[in-house]
Structure formats: C-alpha cells, structure tokens
Design brief:
Pnp Oxidase, Chain A, 231 residues, three-stranded antiparallel beta sheet, seven-stranded antiparallel beta sheet, 7 helices
Length: 231
C-alpha cells in the first residue's frame, strides 16, 4: 500500500499519518493572557529543538474557522510559557485541559489542578507535575502549509513556537538514586495515533558506535559527557 497524502485520501478507514510518527511527547503548555487569564493545553506536535542551550518547540494548528489557539496568542503577546511534564498519573487532568472552551476559561480550574508560581515569568505551573520548564519565546512563526486532500479539515495554517528554556524545576521524587531522572517511576505520557496514548515503561541503554577518528579528536571523558548528557 502506498499513497500521496497531498493528492489522495488514505485508503485506510482512518488517517494513518499520525500513527506513523509515534510516540510523541506531550507538551503540556501553560500560559497567561494579557488580561491575566491562565491557560493550560496539551500539544503532541512537540519535541526538543536544541540541547545546548536547551530549547523546546511545538506547533499549534489554527482552527478550521481561522481562529488561533489561546496558547499561541498568549505566547506571542507575553513572550513566555511553561512546559509541564505529563505523567500517566495526570492523564485525566491533561485530557480535561484539552477541552475546547472560551478564552475566559481557566483550564487549571477546569481540570482541578493546583497552580504553582513560576520564578521568572508570570505564568502558573502545574504543581503536581514532577518537572516544569520556564521558557522564554525565542522564535514564533505562522506557517502556511500546502493544501492537501484533507482540505475539509482546514488545518493549513500552523503556529511554530520555539522556546529557550530559562529555568528547570525538578522535584526530588523525580530523581533516582543514580542521579538520573527516574523515568520508570514517572511513566511519561505520550501520544499515539487516533485517540490512543501510551506510557514510557520499557527503558534500555544503547551506546552509539564511535569512530576511531572521533576518539582521537576528543578525550574519552568529554565524549562520555556529551553522549550521556553529563554535566
């Protein structure tokens, strides 16, 4: 089976594309409007943009009627957002915060979540999230995508947001005895295709093969730090 998604509809009964790029991390983004209204919403078109300096990115599609997401509007106007780490334990609250509601609605209250004050910006964080990253807007761009066979969805415009991570909050309970983030315990939530989600619960190490030339160019100590994320 093969098809051109720009000119042909998927021959399967449901769109396959979002199941071809999985799992996708949940960017649980909190912002605040210029009027002081807190906003919280999950996005799965998200990833690390750079490692050093640490940067994250996510995209937010415009609605079919042309309106933009509150998160995009708030970030563009205030220049700040918080990326809240979403665990399996918080899946119900995350899903509640995905509701399409009026911009006057505070999704923290809608989902029954306690707020925690950020240090560097006037944005509320999810208190129960084990890891929070305060991000300053680095790049904001609205991209006009090519038309496709799915034109009835009206998702041709997308806001791309790149954030510079300015402060990271990590709860002690999120760190294992080895000094690493304890992913086994946290069980991060991730997006699949359709209405499906998954958790990260099967972790194994695998080292990248290194050429002789690279080993001669840098010391083993530096190479180990770069590869492992050590400080």
């Amino acid at each position: 089976m093969k098809f051109d998604p720009l000119t042909e509809k998927c021959p399967l009964p449901f769109s396959a594309f979002r199941s071809c790029v999985v799992p996708r991390p949940i960017a649980w983004i909190s912002t605040k409007s210029e009027d002081g209204i807190c906003n919280l919403a999950p996005f799965s078109q998200a990833q690390i943009f750079n490692i050093d300096p640490p940067m994250v990115c996510f995209t937010a599609n415009h609605y079919p009627n042309g309106l933009r997401k509150d998160s995009s509007i708030n970030i563009e106007k205030t220049g700040w957002f918080v990326w809240n780490f979403c665990t399996e334990e918080l899946k119900g609250e995350m899903n509640a915060s995905s509701s399409i509601v009026s911009h006057e609605t505070d999704e923290f209250e809608l989902a029954g979540l306690e707020k925690e004050k950020a240090d560097l910006c006037d944005v509320s964080m999810v208190a129960s999230s084990p890891i929070k990253m305060e991000c300053e807007l680095f790049k904001f761009e609205t991209i006009e995508c090519p038309q496709s066979s799915q034109v009835e969805l009206g998702l041709g415009k997308v806001d791309m947001i790149i954030g510079l991570v300015r402060r990271i909050h990590i709860k002690e309970s999120a760190v294992g005895e080895d000094g690493k983030i304890d992913i086994d315990t946290l069980r991060p939530l991730a997006r699949m295709g359709y209405f499906d989600y998954t958790t990260v619960n099967n972790i194994f190490p695998m080292r990248m093969p290194v050429s002789k030339e690279l080993l001669e160019a840098v010391t083993p100590e530096i190479l180990e730090k770069v590869m492992s994320g050590g400080g």
